[in-house]
Write a structure and sequence with these properties.
By secondary structure, this protein is an alpha/beta fold. It is built from eight helices and eleven strands. The two termini are about 20 Å apart.
């Protein structure tokens, strides 16, 4: 799963990013409202963590613009504005949750998990292929009932390919999905991760189309 963090305070942004990445979540990070709107419009995210006091475009305007464009990605507001009227305004604008600063990372993670569970309830949260079962709510993967330990990047690739079953996904697209925006994209790195997944989950799961990308074929 992929989360967009919109926070202009670098220390806090780095802390949130580290915590979420440690949970096996792919993370994008932007620092102003205009980039937030562009990032949320250009790429599918499972959740947006959004500060309100942003440069260039206020977070409240970002929410309204996204909802006006029918982008229904869950939004969790992270804001120092703790008056009840601010919370009501944020929720009325289209936010799904509102967390006031300062907050404990444990609470943030619990709220993130709750929103992701709510989103997963509207989707097929458990994905299967033969004896392989991937639960996107917990990021637990089992083969023939046995849990398989995967790294955060391996889980991100598996999740993305499962969510795009039947569609050929290029190495560059996978790299953009799992890495931060400033990463020097390397398709050979993706090939390494895919090979590791094959060793752990079976050689027939992910098909390679030479020079074009990877695919998990539709079906059971």
């Amino acid at each position: 799963m992929r989360i967009l963090i919109v926070e202009d305070e670098p220390v806090l942004a780095g802390q949130i990013r580290k915590v979420l990445s440690g949970q096996g979540l792919a993370v994008d990070l932007v620092t102003d409202g205009v980039e937030a709107y562009r990032a949320a419009s250009a790429r599918a995210h499972d959740m947006i963590l959004l500060d309100l006091g942003l440069p260039k475009m206020d977070g409240m305007k970002v929410i309204r613009a996204l909802r006006a464009d029918s982008i229904d990605t869950p939004v969790m507001v992270l804001s120092a504005r703790n008056d009840w009227a601010d919370r009501v305004a944020g929720l009325d604008a289209g936010a799904d949750d509102y967390v006031t600063k300062p907050f404990r990372m444990e609470e943030l993670l619990a709220r993130v998990r709750a929103l992701l569970r709510r989103k997963a309830a509207d989707q097929n949260a458990v994905l299967t292929r033969g004896d392989l079962v991937y639960d996107s709510r917990t990021n637990i993967v089992t083969v023939d009932g046995e849990t398989v330990n995967l790294t955060a990047n391996e889980i991100a690739i598996l999740s993305y390919l499962f969510r795009n079953q039947g569609r050929l996904v290029s190495g560059a697209e996978l790299a953009r999905f799992i890495y931060a925006n400033d990463f020097n994209l390397r398709s050979n790195t993706i090939a390494v991760f895919v090979n590791r997944l094959r060793k752990k989950l079976g050689s027939d799961l992910i098909k390679t189309v030479r020079g074009r990308g990877y695919v998990i074929k539709s079906g059971k």
